[in-house]
Design brief:
Blueprint (H helix, E strand, L loop, with lengths): L1 H5 L14 E7 L5 E7 L3 E4 L3 E5 L2 E2 L5 E4 L15 E3 L5 E3 L25 H4 L28 E6 L7 E6 L6 E3 L6 E5 L2 E3 L5 E3 L6 H5 L6 E4 L4 E4 L4 E4 L2 E4 L2 H4 L7 E5 L2 E5 L4 E3 L6 E3 L5 H4 L6 E5 L2 E5 L6 E3 L6 E3 L13 E5 L2 E5 L4 E3 L6 E3 L2 H4 L7 E6 L2 E6 L32 E3 L6 E3 L3 E6 L2 E6 L2 H4 L7 E5 L2 E5 L4 E3 L6 E3 L13 E5 L2 E5 L10 E3 L6 E3 L11 E5 L2 E5 L4 E3 L6 E3 L14 E5 L2 E5 L4 E3 L6 E3 L19 E4 L4 E4 L6 H4 L4 E5 L2 E5 L4 E3 L6 E3 H9 L4 E5 L2 E5 L4 E3 L6 E3 L2 H4 L7 E5 L2 E5 L4 E3 L6 E3 H9 L14 E5 L2 E5 L4 E3 ...
Antiparallel strand pairs: 1-2, 2-4, 3-6, 4-5, 7-8, 9-10, 10-12, 11-14, 12-13, 15-16, 17-18, 19-20, 21-22, 23-24, 25-26, 27-28, 29-30, 31-32, 33-34, 35-36, 37-38, 39-40, 41-42, 43-44, 45-46, 47-48, 49-50, 51-52, 53-54, 55-56, 57-58, 59-60, 61-62, 63-64, 65-66, 67-68, 69-70, 71-72, 73-74, 75-76, ...
Membrane topology: Single-pass type I membrane protein
Keywords: Disulfide bond, EGF-like domain, Endocytosis, Glycoprotein, Membrane, Receptor, Repeat, Secreted, Signal, Sushi, Transmembrane, Transmembrane helix
Pfam families: cEGF, EGF_CA, FXa_inhibition
Length: about 1150
């Protein structure tokens, strides 16, 4: 308690001293802080000389020092007990480094100064003099001659860095005083008590020169043998007895690399924004803002540190640019920048853009230009009786019948000599015919007769040159006729000549992703906006609201499906884990991981579980996990069958041993549906490879039944190693969740080989032919019936070994010609064999990434992390795994990268090195030891707390400072509050005592001789009460005597009382009593006792009277003692409770 009291000094705030005033501190024996004020020579004190710290602050205000009448120019000092650095090498304590503000006064030759503490020295003090692990034990301060042992206290620097430090305060013994009243303490720094040691001198000793003339020195006065010597604090320059501040910044001695701030007696360095002061407190170091957030700093993309600043860039994210906030990256809409030179449509995607073509066009090798597809050259999609005519973006099938509207002058012979139009000769024999009624040759319509090398031939008439204005846009000449076509964006009218604009913006016609605006001959796509939903949500009818999709309603793959916002997750039964697809479950082989099974010896993996087995000579214990040694049971000393064998064994009487029972030989014992394996004392069941063991470990079930009931497959399942997967019959495929089989529509997906019509049915398809066609033997190819007739007529050459063709055989001009399907090329060597065309080699860059050649075709594929573009499968775009997979499987942050992704963690978490996806909280409390007292780890962070009686530092929440409870409402103490490290104590003045609440001090006058009260003593409490005042009181039945102390008994019987009969006075009370024959009721009322009822004293008749009773007898009787006796004329015989009469001899008793 001595140390706790000595540590509670000066909790009342110290107030600034007036000019010329001095003070000294002292601690009373009860721990109360007291100040003694005095004045410099030439001044006298006005006010109270002593001030004591109470619960309400100082009991007296600070006095003033006024000038004596004969002096007019005293010196004024504001004193403080702080450490300084002396002229010597070691730290000493004195009053140096004051902030001197000199103000010249009129007609005064001396300076009035005001002192301030040295901040640099104070900032170096600490609390390391407290013995580690203790609360109140300090490193002992040096002993000072003629001084008491030092008392220890804690002080707080009122300026930055607000450090706390310990001080050792001395007091001189009686008859001694401090040589320097201001030098009464030492200071703690780095576990050592530093400062100039205080010195106690006898009061009779004369103070030397400085004590007498020291006021002439502005700062420090030193005695010399004959006089005094004035010097200045560090940072000041002496000019006579005055001290002038040195401006280190102006003189260039500060050596600050950036900003220098001069202060009285010192200076400090500062840095511009983006820099931080180095450890030398002079140089400035650049703040690397990019170090945090995995070297991204505050930037989303690249962070480049600059001197005093930083800049963000999005150069590492292709297709993105820096947003207006100069920190985040936003997508560049390349389609808004010149349409990316796309000839038609531009499709913007995050980080890039693609060119797309409308139907009927294909994308050129430059990936920007759309060219018209000539459908007539590629596949000739028109029927045989029509001609295919290519138009921009499409094609038309035109009948071969001559168009009468085209040739206005039917049969008119055009001048043969005109050759201003193109002549087309034809070798077809049916074009030239002979008029049966004339010897001249006549040509069919659209041709003219012309002699060529002496031979008459029909040549085509070029109607487009002959009639140039026949078509509004374009005229296309054909043998024997012509037709009109329109420019792109137009279509031909019904008259076959004029063109009209096509409204491409009609729904289903254009390929705009946003809004479409029709133009004359064309259209344009305009950017707009639309609401979209993230994966796992569906757009509502208002086109604005997204609703979560309950995938569990459709997911038939999960063993147990749990819907989550925007996604779902599957849960597997015990013994199974999720497959990589996140839906199906696969068996966990507990036997591979020793941590997952408890078998002491052999482990046998089962579907969804495992079992343990033992080597020969061992058996499973009761836990079915541990193998124990089999000790043969012998019963050599047993008689008969009294030997008891363990379970699974039987007793052999002849051998006196216990033998294992082979349960597998008895079906009633093992109950295995298929295979039974005997073990020592037990057995286990197994299944054939095509059956599955159920959870009872006895029953084997067909895979189909197991697949449907246990796995959830709609058809069947297979087991590959430890993985169970659903399978489908031919013609079916697994739908999204890999459990339900759905019919494959071979007709829609192009998986059929039908030459014409394909009709799908469950599990397959059939080929059908149009009119006038029949199905060939392969049930896939449709043959023209007319062509069949030709084949039959011409020896059916194509029907014999397919004409020698490996693919298509066509009969032309009495000859079979071999041809190939699309994607094949006829061999130039034999003209019969079709070789697959390797489009991947011949058509360079046909696929964006991977090209896979297939028989007759090719397919494009993408590398891992990429997916084919829906509208252009040859283009691969990056898959955002963070969106496709639920946050990429990352527990916190998913970062998408081109072709891949990786998981990241927020601050306070660390990525698990095992799975690379889970963020584990960093326990800063264990790894970093960041808190001064108590550290509480929280997810992603931590928080520090302090022990009771401490508070967190306002500058660093990790540090704890002592809470000065006395600063807040005096700690609740009624009088003196004394702060100690970690708590506080309430103290009372002399004659006062602390109550049970340990806060309130009362002067209880009843404690001594009961306050001279004869009975009860009560202290008078309250703010206006006199300390020690009491008042006496008496118990009931007493009155307080006129002396105010003595209680006298009240004789209630002499005054009013409530007794019915007799009143008996007692000390402090009284009692009532009743006369005989009465009973006291309610303490005061007397009630008559009915003796006739309670005692029954009479033999016959009892009559009660107030306070008594009497007995009587009926007529003919008389009372004799306690009984009634009758008047018998002869003899009377007494009996218990009565009597009887009897007669003498010769008489008879007559009853009356």
């Amino acid at each position: 308690l001595v140390f706790s009291l000595s540590a509670i000094l000066g909790n009342c705030p110290l107030q600034a001293l007036p000019w010329g005033a001095l003070r000294e501190e002292r601690v009373l024996e009860n721990g109360t802080l007291q100040l003694r004020y005095f004045c410099e020579p030439g001044r006298r004190l006005k006010g109270h000389k002593v001030a004591t710290c109470t619960a309400n602050g100082w009991d007296h205000p600070v006095p003033k020092c006024v000038l004596d009448s004969e002096l007019h120019h005293p010196y004024h000092f504001l004193l403080a007990n702080q450490p300084i650095v002396s002229d010597k090498s070691n730290l000493q304590t004195t009053e140096k480094h004051f902030n001197v503000l000199a103000n010249k006064k009129k007609n005064q030759k001396r300076l009035f100064v005001k002192a301030e503490l040295n901040k640099t020295i104070v900032s170096q003090l600490d609390t390391t003099c407290l013995i580690e692990g203790s609360i109140q034990k300090f490193i002992k301060a040096p002993s000072i001659e003629h001084a008491h042992e030092a008392r220890y206290a804690k002080r707080t620097n009122v300026r930055l860095p607000y450090n706390q430090f310990h001080v050792a305060i001395y007091s001189c013994m009686e008859g001694f005083v401090f040589l320097n009243l201001k030098n009464d303490r030492l200071f703690c720094s780095n576990g050592t008590w530093i400062g100039r040691h205080p010195k106690c001198v006898r009061k009779t000793e004369k103070v030397k020169h400085c004590a007498k003339h020291g006021k002439e020195c502005q700062h420090v006065c030193e005695d010399t043998p004959t006089d005094i010597k004035c010097s200045c604090f560090d940072g000041f320059r002496a000019e006579g007895s005055s001290c002038i501040d040195i401006d280190e910044c102006a003189e260039g001695t500060a050596k600050c690399t950036d900003i220098c701030r001069n202060e009285p007696g010192t200076y400090h360095c500062e840095c511009h924004h983006g820099f931080v002061l180095g450890n030398d407190r002079h140089s400035c170091q650049d703040v690397n803002e990019c170090l945090s957030n995995n070297r991204h700093g505050p930037c989303q993309g690249i962070c480049r540190n600059l001197k005093g600043s930083y800049e963000c860039s999005c150069a590492d994210i292709p297709g993105y640019k820096l947003a207006a906030d100069n920190h985040t990256c936003e997508d560049i809409d390349e389609c808004m920048l010149g349409n990316v030179n796309c000839s038609h449509q531009c499709y913007n995607v995050p980080g890039s853009a693609f060119c797309l073509c409308p139907s009927g066009y294909y994308l050129e090798d430059d990936w920007k230009t759309c060219l018209d597809i000539n459908e007539c050259q590629i596949s000739n999609p028109c029927p045989n009786d029509t001609v295919c005519r290519n138009i921009v973006g499409s094609y038309k099938c035109v009948s071969k019948v001559r168009m009468e509207k085209v040739l206005r002058f039917e049969g008119t012979n055009v001048d043969e000599d005109r050759d201003d139009y193109e002549e087309i000769f034809t070798e077809e024999p049916n074009l030239l015919r002979k008029n049966p009624w004339s010897t001249h040759h006549v040509c069919r319509k659209g041709f003219k007769l012309k002699s060529v090398n002496g031979t008459s031939k029909c040549v085509d008439i070029n109607e487009c040159k002959l009639w140039k204005r026949r078509c509004q846009h374009k005229c296309v000449n054909e043998p024997g006729t012509y037709h009109c076509t329109c420019h792109s964006g137009y279509e031909l009218k019904e008259d076959g000549r004029h063109c009209r604009d096509i409204d491409e913006c009609t729904p289903g016609t254009h390929t705009c992703f946003h809004s479409c605006t029709n133009l004359v001959g064309s259209y344009e796509c305009r950017a707009s906006y639309r609401c979209d939903c993230p994966s796992g949500y569906v757009m509502q009818d208002d086109k604005k609201t997204c609703k979560d999709i309950d995938e569990c309603l459709e997911n038939n793959e999960c063993y147990k499906c749990i819907n989550t916002p925007g996604s779902y997750r599957c849960i597997c039964p015990p013994g199974y884990i999720l497959n990589e697809d996140g839906n199906t479950c696969k068996d966990v082989d507990e036997c591979e991981n020793i941590a997952m099974n408890d078998c002491s010896h052999d482990c046998i993996n089962l579907k969804g579980s495992y079992s343990c087995s033992c080597p020969p000579g061992f058996k499973l214990g009761e836990d079915n996990r541990t193998c124990i040694v089999i000790i043969p049971y012998t019963c050599a000393n047993s008689e008969g069958d009294d030997c008891t064998c363990p379970e699974g064994h039987t007793y052999l009487q002849e051998e006196h041993i216990c033998k294992d029972i082979d349960e597998c030989q008895d079906e009633s014992r093992h109950n295995c549906s298929h295979f039974c394996i005997n073990t020592s004392g037990s057995y286990y069941c197994e299944c054939p490879s095509d059956l599955h063991m159920l959870a009872d470990f006895k029953t084997c079930r067909q895979w189909d039944s197991f697949c449907v009931n246990e796995v959830g497959c709609s058809y069947s399942c297979k087991q590959d190693n430890d993985e169970v997967r659903c399978v489908c019959p031919t013609g079916y495929e697994l739908i999204k969740y890999k459990k339900t089989c759905k019919d494959v529509n071979e007709c829609d997906t192009g998986l059929h080989d039908c030459s014409h019509d394909c009709r799908n049915h469950d599990g397959g398809f059939t080929c059908h032919c149009p009119n006038y066609f029949i199905l060939d033997k392969d049930n896939k190819t449709c043959l023209n019936m007319e062509h069949c007739i030709r084949l039959c007529v011409h020896k059916k050459s194509c029907l014999v070994n397919n004409g020698g063709c490996s693919d298509i055989c066509t009969f032309v001009n009495d000859t079979s010609i071999c041809d190939c399907s699309v994607g094949y090329r006829l061999s130039l060597q034999d003209n019969t064999t079709c070789w697959d065309i390797n489009e991947c080699s011949e058509l360079r860059d046909i696929c964006n990434q991977i090209c896979i050649n297939t028989p007759g075709s090719f397919k494009c594929s993408c590398r891992d992390g990429y997916a084919q573009m829906p509208y252009a499968p040859e283009i691969c775009i990056d898959v955002n795994e963070c969106e496709v997979i639920e946050n990429g499987g990352c527990s916190h942050i998913c970062v998408n990268t081109p072709g891949s992704y990786h998981c990241d963690c927020p601050v306070g978490y660390r990525l698990s090195p095992q799975d690379k996806i889970t963020c584990k909280d960093i326990n800063e409390c264990v790894e970093q030891h960041v808190c001064d007292h108590t550290c509480i780890n929280t997810p992603g962070s931590f928080k520090c707390s302090c022990w009771h009686g401490f508070v967190q530092s306002p500058n660093d929440p990790a540090l704890c400072e002592d809470r000065d409870e006395c600063e807040i409402e005096n700690g609740g103490c009624s009088h003196t509050c004394m702060n100690v490290i970690g708590t506080y104590l309430c103290r009372c003045p002399e004659k006062y005592e602390l109550t049970n609440d340990w806060k309130t001090c009362i002067w209880d006058g009843c404690k001594h001789n009961n306050g001279k009260c004869s009975h009860y003593c009560h202290p008078v409490l309250g703010p206006a009460s006199v300390p020690g005042a009491i008042y006496c009181s008496c118990p009931r039945g007493y009155d307080l005597w006129h002396d105010g102390r003595t209680c006298k008994d009240i004789d209630e019987c002499m005054e009013q009382h409530v007794c019915d009969h007799t009143c008996i006075n007692n000390p402090g009370s009284y009692e009532c009593r009743c006369r005989q024959g009465f009973r006291l009721v309610n303490g005061s009322t007397c009630v008559d006792i009915d003796e006739c009822i309670e005692k029954a004293p009479c033999s016959k008749i009892c009559i009660n009277i107030p306070g008594s009773y009497y007995c009587t007898c009926p007529i003919g009787f008389k009372l004799q003692e306690d009984e009634c006796v009758g008047n018998c004329n002869h003899e009377c015989i007494n009996i218990m409770g009565s009597f009887i009469c009897s007669c003498c001899t010769g008489y008879t008793l007559i009853l009356r």
